[in-house]
Amino acid sequence: MDDDTQQFDGLTQLIEHLDNSTRGVERVSLSLIVETVGSRSFGPLLLIAGLITLAPLIGDIPGVPTVMGILVLLVSGQLVVGRRHFWLPQWLLERSVDGGKFTRGIRWMRRPARGIDKLLKPRLVRLVRGPGILTVAATCSLIALGMPLMEVVPFSANGAGAALTLFGLALIARDGLLALIGFMLVTGTAGFIIYQLS
């Protein structure tokens, strides 16, 4: 995997970078995605996992939310214990989705991404620095552990994907308000799942 830490100014830039890197590829593997965003980029990796879980045509593929959950769990867990270069197993990196579906799903997000980027700005920075990052990582680990269950509870994976997207954006833009909204969304999604299963 690539050792670089990629820098992104916002969601639009990340989506365009992904689109350019995967254009014309028959099967888009997790290895290619990680190589594109950088294997030391916690925020972008979270954001990618969230976007893929949310994206039409991609997140609806059976097993995709679980694979994203494994990715998030491995990366978040390694961050919590102090690693800054993330190791991922080869069998996970080889998982792939149809390139056409991936491209259509990513491009569908371009318009909302431009609107979201206009709202991003550094604020409540303590929530996304130091101990705040560890809190985000621990919360994302809990989300990841629940991903397999979310495949059988309608719409719950969307809540998880949205939360991961918010956390990823929060870390990229140093926007603690988005992290705060992400924590609230996790609480709401957990309540929804408990209600659906009760």
Key terms for this structure?
single chain; about 200 residues; two-stranded antiparallel ribbon; 2 strands; about 70% helix; globular; membrane; transmembrane helix; ExoD
Structural class: mainly alpha
Helical region count?
10
Rg over CA atoms, rounded to whole Å, is: 15 Å
**Biggest sheet character:** 2 strands, antiparallel
Binned strand content = under 5%
Helix proportion of residues, in percent? 55-70%
Summarize model confidence as the mean pLDDT.
Answer: 86
What is the approximate shape? globular
Order of adjacent strands in the largest pleated sheet:
1-2
Number of domains in the coordinates? 1
Order of helices and strands: HEHHHHEHHHHH
Q: Can you characterise this structure?
A:
The protein has a two-stranded antiparallel sheet. It has one domain (11-192). It has 10 helices and 2 strands, in the order αβααααβααααα. It has 198 residues and is mainly alpha-helical. It is globular. The protein has helices spanning 11-22, 30-37, 42-54, 64-80, 90-93, 99-108, 110-119, 131-150, 156-173, 176-197, and strands at residues 27-29, 96-98. 68% of the residues lie in helices and 3% in strands.
